[in-house]
Amino acid sequence: MPRPPFILLLSACVALGACAPSLDIPPPPDIQPVLDAFDAPTADVRAEIMGETDDRIARASENITESLLLRRLLDIIESVRAGLDDAIDDGDLSANGDEYSNPNGVVDIISICPGWDLQAPEPDVANGTIDLTMLLVEGRISPEVWGTVEGCRFLVNDREWSFDGGVTVHFGDVVDVETDLNQLVVTFVVEGTLRLGELSFELAESARISAGGRLEILIQLADRRTFVYFFEPDEIIQGIRDITGVFGCSLENRECDKGSDGFFW
Amino acid sequence: MRQRLRRLLLVALLATVVTGSMGLQPPPARAYHSYKTRLLDSTAYSLYRREFRIGLMKFSYGMFNWLQLSTYTLPWIAGAALEQVAPNLELKSTFFNRRRLALSLSFEFAEGGVESTEIDNGELTTSTVNYLVFVTGLTSSVRINSNISTHLGGVFTGTDVAGGSEPTGNEVRGVAVVNMLQIWGMLEWRLSPVVALTMTVRWLPYVSDTVARANLEIDDNTGAIIGIQVEVFDLKNAFAAIPGAVFSWERANIRIGVGYGDFFVESVGLVVPASIVRNISAEFDVFVRF
């Protein structure tokens, strides 16, 4: 009786073993230049600069605040954080009927977007997905969470929004799983297409949201100088943080109060 | 004179018939160490066709002269005790056996589960762990002379463990994976047809990072897959040196060995760290071969 080709069987066996899943920890995107720019803007804002950037600032602010895109992303990450908080006790992750002490690894977050039909009985992938990657560092959450949003549909005040693009979220430092992320200053780098019905907006913004609801938008000029325009929650108080300091502005009145250097544009 | 000659011829004829009869009949299976009957464990040799091995640790059957089918008893016994059967099956093929060299290839899989129930803060919690182990081995055996043989092999073990606990506030279930490569060598010295001394050395040069994966369900829309690297035990470079002996009689065999180092569980290709077994590594089996 001819012997089967056991060398082939061996190859299959080894290949089967080699195909066992392995953990590939991806490097997070580097947004340090964005963080540095928020902390230390380099532009000295004058009338000319505001004249060039006011429309962009207003549009970005409107898109971010009306779509609640950043808030939606943060809520998803916060819900996963809360889940990890349940599963991790004193740095030990309970999983597989066992405990893993101070784990290092990757958390792949998948969220199906709610869509435009509030009466839908169950989640539908056709409404788009948000895929995010979070890293665990010794049982704590790494500062960066990043990923992609594909065809995500969601309603805000009965208005049909959708977004496609990439996102990076930064918490400033490693975060304990017990920490409520809404209490932190969170930086977002968002790049993609935001749609409202037939309207389409290209969104390429870096923004920060603080615990009090203050929104900061980073503006980079053509010569790569930067400044930050901020909105307090009531949107009445607005201002600029530039290389000279912090001062009040109003997009509606097209004026900034920079002390003796106040200007209109 | 004629009577004496007649008697001599009759004796010679009877002797010839008896001797010839013995040559025609297949000799009874004997487990004595011999040129044809070799050690089975940690060697490239397999049972012959229609031979059986029934032992404390292992049941084997020779389907063909080059193919042996086996199952280890320990997972079955442990599975029965835990009320979850743990089937396992090994195929070993001596695909080359000529002159002084023999080569074999083996493949084994074992599957089982463990379930435990405990009360935690007044709440009943059930934990289940299911495992799948597959083991691939390649072995060579070389007869230096009629008394001394050397055996060398490599064993690759892949393990998947899946489990979880319920009910919990947040059900986290997942999979852990670890792969390891073992290199081993054995020196066999036959003192007699009954006694063979062995010296076995085992070494674990490669252990993959242990990867555990868990599923975290947040709500109907959101979930997460957690992949973590954990080092449950530091197994890399685990080793054992085990002097031993195999006693083989007509059918019965005893294999014993006690040595130093980590404990290599041959039936599932896994390793128990020396710190747990107090640096005692052992081999033991009692079986009949017929």
Report on the architecture of this protein:
The complex is a heterodimer of chains A (265) and B (290). Chain A has helices spanning 6-18, 32-39, 47-67, 69-87, and strands at 88-89, 92-95, 98-101, 104-112, 129-137, 140-156, 159-170, 186-196, 199-209, 215-220, 226-231, 238-242, 245-250, 255-257, 263-264. Chain A contains four helices and 15 strands. In chain A, strands 4-5-6-7-8-9-10-11-12-13-14-15 form a twelve-stranded antiparallel β-sheet, with helices on both faces. A three-stranded antiparallel β-sheet of chain A has the order 1-2-3. The relative contact order of chain A is 0.17. In chain A, 23% of the residues lie in helices and 40% in strands. With 265 residues, chain A is an alpha+beta fold. In chain B, the strands form two sheets. In chain B, strands 1-2-3-4-5-6-7-8-9-12-13-16 form a twelve-stranded antiparallel barrel. A two-stranded antiparallel ribbon of chain B has the order 14-15. The two termini of chain B are 50 Å apart. Chain B is built from three helices and 16 strands. Chain B has helices spanning 2-24, 73-81, 274-277; strands at residues 52-55, 58-64, 67-72, 88-98, 101-120, 123-143, 148-166, 172-190, 195-207, 210-217, 222-230, 238-248, 252-261, 263-265, 270-272, 280-289. The radius of gyration of chain B is 25 Å and the shape is elongated. With 290 residues, chain B is mainly beta. At the A-B interface, α1, α4, β2, β3 and β4 of A face β5, β6, β7, β8 and β10 of B. β4 (104-112) of chain A pairs antiparallel with β11 (222-230) of chain B.
